[in-house]
Amino acid sequence: MINATMQDAVNAQINLEQSSAQLYLAMSGTMDGKNFHGFAHWLRVQAEEETKHAMRLVDHLLERGGRLELGTIEKPPSEFGSVTQLFEKVLQHEQLVTASIGRLFELARSQKDHASEVALQWFVTEQVEEEATASQIVAQVRAVGEQGGGIWYLDGKLGKRGS
Ligand code: FEO
Question: Which CATH class is domain 4-158?
Answer without folding.
Answer: mainly alpha
